[in-house]
Specification:
With about 120 residues, this protein is an all-alpha fold. The protein is built from 3 helices and no strands.
């Protein structure tokens, strides 16, 4: 695996880990906002001004959680695409190595003619 591909895998893993942390913090924040809202409701009119703040915190937590999930989905797609690219690059490298080793093979011209015929189709 190339250094670039390795760096991409590491980057995707780091992103996933950070998003997981952000999701956990947002979930705790959402729970805290719910608890604060319950306390404000029990306090009645004296804490009426506190409700917009708890609503804002709850909405922020919801946005963070949904954004984290979406970014995680995109990171998973990126990781899968990268894995497919690494496999394809490895296969091409193997095919090229076989081709180089087979340069002096008595039937190599037949394979090259077949390749040209397949391309022309």
């Amino acid at each position: 695996m190339s250094d670039l591909a390795h760096n991409y895998f590491v980057s995707v893993a780091e992103i996933a880990a950070k998003l997981d942390q952000a999701t956990h913090i947002a979930q705790k924040l959402s729970l805290t906002a719910s608890n604060a809202r319950a306390v404000a409701l029990r306090a009645g009119e004296r804490a009426a001004g506190f409700r917009p703040l708890t609503d804002f915190i709850d909405r922020l937590a919801e946005i963070t959680i949904s954004s984290s999930k979406r970014i995680n989905q995109l990171a998973a797609i990126l990781s899968q695409t990268l894995a497919e690219k690494v496999r394809a690059d490895t296969a091409i490298a193997h095919f090229n190595a076989v081709y180089v080793r087979a340069k002096n093979s008595p039937y190599i011209d037949w394979f090259e003619a077949l390749e040209v015929a397949l391309i022309e189709k």
